[in-house]
Write a structure and sequence with these properties.
Shape: globular
Number of helices: 4
CATH architecture: 3-Layer(aba) Sandwich
Order of helices and strands: EHEEHEHEHE
Strand order of the largest sheet: 3-2-1-4-5-6
Structural class: alpha/beta
CATH superfamily: Isochorismatase-like
Helix content: 25-40%
Length: 175
């Protein structure tokens, strides 16, 4: 098993909006440090385009709290699915990765879509149980914590073509 850490859309504009954003960024930064120490490639996805993510806008920048390093790979994406129209699959294949450790935002959008797309492409996914976040959905009557717990459960129990999804807490990964 060869692993890569994929960080989804941890951008400055989103950190104050998502549930426990600053804590999440710190947890992911620690996870990335542990990954690098084990020789695991760190890939950060960056959403660009649309009214909220104008290229070059200050909020579109990846969160400084992540402590990204020059050796880390940054891949821009324009869709909810991190693979769609991006170089993510190529970057993963180039490193020989067959498993991705998945973190970031939003749980019910880009993290979910990227996890499902990864397994459809034959990758196994380790979804970091406490390594993704979102905002509450008042129309559905769900808190952010409930949405996160629901997606952890759904993704780990669904039947996926090509790969598997396992859910693990951050402190049990790269140790």
């Amino acid at each position: 098993m060869k692993t890569a850490l994929v960080i989804v859309d941890m951008q400055e504009v989103l950190i104050p909006v998502v549930w426990e954003g600053p804590e999440l960024a710190g947890r992911i930064a620690d996870l990335a440090d542990r990954a690098r120490a084990k020789g695991v490639k760190v890939i950060a996805l960056q959403q660009v385009g649309g009214p909220m993510f104008e290229p070059g806008a200050p909020g579109t920048a990846l969160a400084h709290r992540l402590r990204l390093r020059p050796a880390d790979t940054v891949i821009q994406k324009t869709a909810t699915d991190g693979f769609y129209g991006s170089t993510l699959e190529e970057a993963l294949r180039d490193t020989g990765a067959d498993t991705i450790v998945l973190t970031g935002v939003g749980t019910d959008y880009c993290v979910d879509a990227t996890a499902r797309s990864a397994v459809s492409r034959g990758f196994d996914v380790i979804l970091v149980e406490d390594g993704h976040s979102t905002v509450a959905d008042p129309q559905a009557g769900l808190t952010a914590g409930q949405i996160i717990a629901r997606h952890n459960r759904i993704l780990s129990n669904a039947i996926h073509p090509g790969g598997t999804v396992k859910v693990r807490p951050a402190d049990k990964i790269f140790i």
